Amino acid sequence: MTEYKPENFPFYIMFESVTFDEDYHHEFKGHRSISVEELPPSCHRPNPSKQHFSSKVSFVSRQSRQCVSKALNAFLNTGDGGCVYLGITDDGIVRGIQLTDFQQHHIELNVVDLMTRYSPPVPSDRIKIRFVPVITKAITNVTAYLEKLKQNRIEHEFNMKPHIMRTYDMCWCDYDADIRMSHNKILAPYVVEIQVLKFEVPPVTVETIGYDYLKYFYPIYESEEDNCHFRREASVNNFSKQEIYAISMDETETFCSKIINKLLKEKKQLQEENNTKMIL
Ligand SMILES: [Zn+2]
């Protein structure tokens, strides 16, 4: 079993199982289709329930592959955060995704672009992306391999060509990767960890009641498909406006009870102090 490695020396081992399952905080993906537009048409399966009633088959209502956006949206909307792992399949096996530095940059920009398309846009400090190398059994000196990966990184700040996003068509960086592989260059595999950070609620004080109280509630984000997803255990659910209203009411009630309890406690203390003074 692969252990979750320390921050300074992280790596996964190819074809091993990870020590955690898909759950409320973890989502595995064997692909890198970030937004809905990046799902290839072959991923849209016919819907069997519609085939029964019509000779025309619906290719849009059931997808064999879910884009990464749904999981990210759900982690944001539940407020507790979570991580999507690209390159780990549903069975928890590390398979990695072979990526050039250009393709890594593409994924980073892709996620940034997606977050600007949510409503409201997601602040950049809520998302962190990490490319964790995958080690194959053929690699005997892991430290040397990781060092070499670091040294070989290409600086792409001054990259001339813009990456092509919001489509399932290949970008120039994908063609570039194909050319490298056709010249027998082996591309390093990675697990891409896209982490949604937990929404940090500031400490609640009585003094702040009535001022800027919205900062205590995490926003609900609409995805690029105008949907609001929520995480329930290992699944992603699309919630209706009524369900979101009910969640918001619950949270408002919890928040207000905290303030009310604090005020009642203060009132009791003041009464006790007053009673003591009266006796004296
Ligand atoms: Zn690209």
From TrEMBL:
Matching Pfam families: SLFN_AlbA_2
PANTHER family: SCHLAFEN (PTHR12155), SCHLAFEN ALBA-2 DOMAIN-CONTAINING PROTEIN (PTHR12155:SF41)
Official protein name in the record: Schlafen AlbA-2 domain-containing protein
Species of provenance: Strigamia maritima (European centipede)
Record-annotated Schlafen AlbA-2 domain positions: 61-135
